[in-house]
Amino acid sequence: GPVCKHVHLKPQAAAMSEPKPPTPTPTPGDTYKGWLFKWTNYIKGYQRRWFVLSNGLLSYYRTQAEMGHTCRGTINLATANITVEDSCNFVISNGGAQTYHLKASSEVERQRWITALELAKAKAVHMQAESDDSGDDCSTAPPTSGQGGGCRNSEVQSTLRTMSSKVEDLTTCNDLIVKHGSALQRSLSELEGIRVGGDMGEKTRQVTERATLFRITSNAMINACRDFLSLAQNHSKRWQKALQTERDQRIRLEETLEQLAKQHNHLERAFRGATDLNRGVSAKGDASDEDDDNEFFDAMEDPAEFITVPADPKYHRSLTVFYFSHPLELEPVRQRRTRIPDKPNYYLNLWSIMKNCIGKELSKIPMPVNFNEPLSMLQRLSEDLEYYELLDKGAKCQSSLEQMCYVAAFTVSSYSTTVHRTGKPFNPLLGETFELDRLGECGYRSLCEQVSHHPPAAAHHAISEKGWTLRQEITLASKFRGKYLSIMPLGSIQCLFDKSNNHYSWKKVTTTVHNIIVGKLWIDQSGEIDVVNHRTGDRCHLKFAPYSYFSRDVPRKVTGVVTDKDGKAHYVLSGTWDEKMEFSRVMQSSKGENGTEGKQRTVYQTLKAKEIWRKNPLPDGAENMYFFSSLALTLNEPEEGVAPTDCRRRPDQRLMEEGRWDEANAEKQRLEEKQRTTRREREREAVKAASTPEEGPHQDNYQALWFEKIDDAASGETLHVYKGGYWEAKDQGSWDMCPEIF
């Protein structure tokens, strides 16, 4: 990593002024030193580092011996935010590229550091404010070179002296008013106590004299106040104008940076579409600390699972593989919408509705649209394809074990959209469909259909020109537990690759919505997933760790191991389901020491980890648009030629998106009643057609339109698969076979 001398950086304004003598050695109260654990990356976890807090700067070193020559990183507390996470953990960030995730050995030690950091930050902010004050303009015109700093400093000093003088005048006037007021009060009291006669004239004269002095000093006080106020107002206007100019410049700079970021993102996506070069590794830690070519990974903090250690450095050279592909022609892409109407601020007490529903199925609870998001469950299923590029890359892999890593990463990526999505998707009506035709833009087509209503089940089929097919059938089992809501997706997801005939299947983990009664709703994913390649016997075991307030692990953590049919480990995956995943090649494995629970942990020697997936940033204003991703914003956009059963044509969902929630609730009730009537009619027809009474009243003879149920020999699963005909019907514009559900 880069080496920096341990010097105390001066604020920029001070650096522009004349050289100053060296700063005296700070007193012990201004310096704080000690060991802390600093987060580096998902494989290494927290590492012990020596931290030094001095002169408003927090620096760290690997050892105390490095203090004299090698500083690993420094953060200026004047612009930093200090956040306490739990009893031992805290975060220091300057809002930019520098973020230190730190952990103390105890709560007492953490509080000592927090106290020292807050005091140092206050001093640093005060010093910076004083330095910034010396930077105010002395006139509206820009100063000439060589004179600006002196002119600004001279004017500020002069203003401060003048205002200090006025404050002294006010203090003097106040003292005189108190003195003469007291004397006047005494004279008035004496005047009341004397009789008419001898010394009446003398007392009257004293009262008049003292009243005159009181009036004079009061006028002086009023004049001094007026002068001070006028002076303060004049300079306040100038300083406010200068401050507003700085703010305007900052806003323009931010807008420029935002435009550059968008252009960079666009170019990056275009480049990614044209080439398929591997991306480099990125880590949560600082590059200065972790980028050394000769440094390898330490043990990962997960006592219940496994640990990784560095493999022999020779593997880093002999096993490096580069991938190249021919450039693709970039076709013009349809411009899709980037905004939907902001979510209205309608208040409705969730507990008033949910308190009578404890233990019930979520699908059977009559919920107003106030708790929905303007998307159907079919559209939420289609969101799994946001990171379709992982399957594109998997289709190009020569090794089934490496392909398994991309499939596993795709599995994890499907949860990234849920982290802030506390709104409930609309329950699809029976026979409702959703198509997602991105053949020209992304090379795939997708179709969903609601194939059952009780229990609610949706079938999904997507096929790509890049040589993969994704199919799934999901039935949601959900229970309201009072404090939280559990959603258990039942059913199977399968991915098939044309070139290798590899056939993968897996299931989904449990989703939990917390704080139903009180507090802010938040979502967690927990459980374990086995991704199985039925052709080769390869397997990836993924573990989604549930959030725990007392855990020292990073929240939303996911770990996984890819093994072959004999159980030999080949890859290790690690990351979080809401941010990114990394994978590393296992070169050797062995049984290690017993963990905290008495279990023997496996030790994996691995190569340096590579990033395999990273979540796309949310669009601007997402917090006002149900926290939709860029893909989600386009899903309900009206399109010509879709089936009459398509979610985009659903009226209650459209009214909700437009912010007309009262009308949406009325329309939702109408559609649900219409569906109940249709189901009763089907049941009556089933009774008439039944050969025996036992086959009658409770049997729903609904048949899906675009999917058919099969027994999959490879996975042993029974599921609905696409039987064809939809895209041909769309090309012909012939939808006569579609039921009228809206």
Automatic annotation (TrEMBL):
Keywords: Coiled coil, Lipid transport, Lipid-binding, Membrane, Phosphoprotein, Transport. One of its GO terms (molecular function) is sterol binding. Residues 130-155, 663-700 are annotated as: Disordered. One of its GO terms (biological process) is lipid transport. Transmembrane segments: none annotated. One of its GO terms (cellular component) is plasma membrane. InterPro entries: OSBP_sf, Oxysterol-bd, Oxysterol-bd_CS, PH-like_dom_sf, PH_domain. Residues 663-687 have a biased composition (Basic and acidic residues). SMART domains: PH. SUPFAM superfamilies: Oxysterol-binding protein-like (SSF144000), PH domain-like (SSF50729). It is found in: Membrane. PROSITE patterns: OSBP, PH_DOMAIN. The keyword RNA-binding does not apply. Residues 243-270 form a coiled coil. Belongs to the OSBP family. This is Oxysterol-binding protein. The gene is LOC118312762.
